[in-house]
Amino acid sequence: MSCIGHWVNNEAFPGASGNTAPVTNPATGEVTREVALADVRDARVVIDAAAAALPAWRDTSLAKRTAIMFRFRELLNQHKDELAGIITSEHGKVLSDALGEVTRGQEVVEFACGIPHLLKGGFSENASTEVDVLSVRQPVGVVGIIAPFNFPAMVPMWFFPIAIAAGNTVVLKPSEKDPSAALWLSELWAQAGLPAGVFNVLQGDKTAVDELLCHRAVKAISFVGSTPIAQYVYATGTANGKRVQALGGAKNHAVVLPDADLDLAADAMVNAGFGSAGERCMAISAVVAVGDIADELVLKIAERAKSIKIGDGTRGCDMGPLVTAAHRNRVASYIDQAEQDGAAVVFDGRQVSPDGSEDGFWLGPTVIDRVSTDMSCYTDEIFGPVLSVLRVESYDEALELINSNPYGNGTAIFTNDGGAARRFHNEVEVGMVGINVPIPVPMAYYSFGGWKNSLFGDTHAHGTEGVHFFTRGKVVTSRWLNPSHGGINLGFPQTS
Ligand code: NAD
């Protein structure tokens, strides 16, 4: 069986560890390939290559770096169907959704094509008499990017276009569940003319991550994954002196106020709850129905859930399988538990008839009504196609529910009342807010990131915060000497 390896110095590198993990097609249950799992020696080969490439790349002119970014963008745009196919074959999401993922990643590449403007510094002439001050932002060095399974192309692209354009070199550690997209992107970089060693891929698990967190050459870490691992990565990386942004898990609430258009709200709940089989960090998982609309809203959501076509992502279905059998069973166990806890499973995805192999990891859309805040289907991030409905009496109760939740990634409100919407976006303690928009993922020129247990670190992803994260500020104060500048003065420098 073929083995997916690492990528170093613009070449495939099989590694020497001999450790592998299976890679599965979730729609068929079939193990299609293996992926190499790096040991410490393999990891050092990859990181050392990135460190060796750094001096020449950071000194490469902005004009040349930008030209490569534009070529990469063109190649990606031309061949993105190919990448979408790879994503579907290892993740399971339907092809149209995989293409959407690539397009959202491409937007960050397009943003990074403007790096000359984004890196412009400041200059003050005569800050003091004949003294000038200038500020620049310089690359941080080798950057480690550690990605989750659910967006094998888009999440790495939140980071590496900006990191590379800003003059850093990169080691990407993909999820072991869907490692091929990263290699495809590596080949594209090589075709675009990126010098060897600037973009590298390290396949592996905790061993590879730990080496990135400890290796002296690695200066910054961008991590995306579950909250416990994000906490670990943040604590370990910062203890080792690295700059870390660690994006964690989520529990995203959508509030539906009594004045909302319930048909539009139900459409939005279904799209945001069941798209990508709920395996999105911005998926809606908790519907908060305010006032006496709950019965009608639940009915409308269930009706729509019934119409969703489940099956192999290559066959034009609406929703694909879950990523692994273990994950499918874990999600199903939350539905079992909710039933035992007294919630009402009004639409049950545990039994489905998919358009695809019976060995796929299928679980259909599920709607659980009358959920309370102590039930595990509410307290835990399920990361599957399960919508929990919580019923509250008032806007204040809805707000309190969201603000008490330990996560703060995304949220949305559905209403036609502008005042209520404005109050919500002002008062809610969540990083990304949608008003009649269920998945408010910011555009590439804004920054993506949650609050509370959804992000550890100070800096969100992409946009100007991304540029800031991958660069360090430097301020230069200069005076060109003439004889009038002589004389001894031990005082603290002041302007004159
Ligand atoms: P995960 O935490 O299991 O894995 C993420 C990465 O960490 C992978 O590369 C994995 O190999 C590595 N890893 C796993 N165990 C590790 C360990 N013990 N030590 C060090 N590294 C380890 O996450 P996942 O299941 O791949 O992805 C789903 C999670 O990611 C969900 O919680 C989801 O909410 C979150 N996510 C968050 C965002 C966001 O923007 N906040 C975006 C996408 C996904």
Provide tags for this entry.
alpha/beta; 496 residues; Aldehyde Dehydrogenase, Chain A, domain 1; 23% strand; Aldehyde Dehydrogenase, Chain A, domain 2; 23 strands; 15 helices; single chain; seven-stranded mixed sheet; six-stranded mixed sheet; 2 domains; binds nicotinamide-adenine-dinucleotide
Task: Summarize this entry quickly.
The chain is α/β, with parallel strands linked by helices.
Specify the biggest β-sheet.
7 strands, mixed
Overall, the morphology is globular
Q: What fraction strand? A: 15-25%
**Helix coverage percent:** 25-40%
> What would you report as the Rg, rounded to the nearest angstrom?
25 Å
The overall pLDDT, averaged over residues, is 97
Low-confidence stretches: none
* Alpha-carbon distance between the two ends: 73 Å
Across the major sheet, the strand order is 15-16-17-14-13-19-20
Which small molecules are bound? nicotinamide-adenine-dinucleotide
CATH homology-level superfamily of the largest domain: Aldehyde Dehydrogenase, Chain A, domain 1
CATH topology of the largest domain: Aldehyde Dehydrogenase, Chain A, domain 1
What structural class do helix, strand and pairing data support? alpha/beta
Number of domains: 2
* Total beta strand runs: 23
Q: Secondary structure elements and their pairing?
A:
Elements: E1 3-4, E2 6-8, E3 11-13, E4 19-25, E5 30-37, H1 40-58, H2 62-91, H3 95-112, H4 115-118, E6 122-128, E7 131-139, E8 142-146, H5 154-165, E9 169-173, H6 180-192, E10 199-201, H7 206-214, E11 218-224, H8 227-239, E12 243-247, E13 252-256, H9 262-274, E14 284-290, H10 294-306, H11 325-340, E15 344-347, E16 366-369, H12 376-379, E17 386-392, H13 395-404, E18 407-408, E19 410-414, H14 418-427, E20 432-435, E21 451-452, E22 455-456, H15 463-469, E23 471-479
Parallel strand pairs: 1-5, 8-9, 8-11, 9-10, 11-12, 13-14, 13-19, 14-17, 16-17, 19-20
Antiparallel strand pairs: 2-3, 4-5, 6-7, 7-23, 12-22, 15-16, 18-21
Helix pairs in contact: 1-7, 2-3, 2-6, 3-5, 9-10
Bound molecules: nicotinamide-adenine-dinucleotide.
Nicotinamide-adenine-dinucleotide (NAD) is lined by residues 146-151, 155, 173, 175-176, 205-206, 209, 224-226, 229, 232, 247-250, 281, 381, 383, 409, 450, 454.
